[in-house]
Amino acid sequence: MGSIDSRLRRLEESGGSCSGCGLSAEARRPIATVYPDDADKGFEGDPYEACAACGEPLHTVIRVVYGGEGGGGCR
Fold it and tell me: What is the C-alpha to C-alpha distance for residues 47 and 34, in angstroms, rounded to an integer?
């Protein structure tokens, strides 16, 4: 039981943040803006990337659409 106790203590001391990405499950992620029709605009890299350690997404993705292309989200 000693290893479980020490792991719990380290997690509590870190404020509940992941050792891989440094974010907690409740933390706000940086925003990654994606323009599906304009590949040269917006976020560079993989906006849907997840942390290898905790599996949580590293970014909040905003997909920008124009006019009648609506993605079915909130208005």
Answer: 8
pLDDT of residue 72: 58
Total domains, the chain: 1
| Residues 6 or more apart whose Cβ sits within 8 Å of residue 17 | 23, 24, 27
Tokens of 28: 């706000």
What angle (nearest 5°) sits at the alpha carbon of residue 46, between those of residues 40 and 51? 160
Would residue 75 count as lying in a domain? no
Give the three-class secondary structure for 63.
strand
- pLDDT tens sequence across 33-61: 998 888 788 888 899 999 998 888 999 99
In a domain, 23, yes or no: yes
Give the separation between CA 55 and CA 31, rounded to whole angstroms. 17
Q: What is the pLDDT of residue 75?
A: 42
